Amino acid sequence: QTGRGDAAATTRIYFEGRYLGRPVTDENRCIALGMLAEGLRGSRPEEALPVFQAQLALWRRNWPDDENSILIVQTNLSSCLDDLGRREEAIDLKVDIYRRREATLGASHKTTILDGCSLVITMRRSMICPDEAIAFARDLLGEARQSLGA
């Protein structure tokens, strides 16, 4: 069994570019960070959070034009924040993700709708804005029906 500091040490090794002599711009390294973070998220979300943050920093630094990959990492990061009970931060990030998806893919795209559903769930959990969550969910349902032809 590994100790609590192992995830942070592994992240640091990947981030500093000392793993097998690969350059820091290695896309596989970013993917490995995401896999590590997802593995930690279920049982140790407090350790997963800095790993997601390191992954996001790498994507932004090395591939700033890869909007889709950055949004995927941000989605995972926002879910981790939600898991940690940091719902206001999660909501702010999920609103940004939803708006960027809507601007790039359109409101009726399945990915936009899924990101919107994730936002609704976090809004309902937070109990900060339950009425807004219900209204937004109704709008999403309309988009989903239109998109699916139902």
Notes on the protein architecture:
- There is one protein chain.
- The protein is an all-alpha fold.
- 77% of the residues lie in helices and 0% in strands.
- It has 7 helices and no strands.
- It has helices at 6-15, 27-41, 45-62, 67-83, 87-105, 110-126, 130-148.
- The radius of gyration is 17 Å and the shape is globular.
Termini separation comes to: 50 Å
- Give the number of helices: 7
* Contiguous runs where pLDDT drops below 50 for at least 5 residues: none
The largest pleated sheet is described as: none
| Average of pLDDT | 84
SSE layout and pairings?
Layout lengths: L5 H10 L11 H15 L3 H18 L4 H17 L3 H19 L4 H17 L3 H19 L2
Helix pairs in contact: 1-2, 1-3, 2-3, 3-4, 4-5, 5-6, 6-7
Keywords:
mainly alpha, 150 residues, single chain
Please give a quick description of this structure:
This protein is mainly α and 150 residues long.
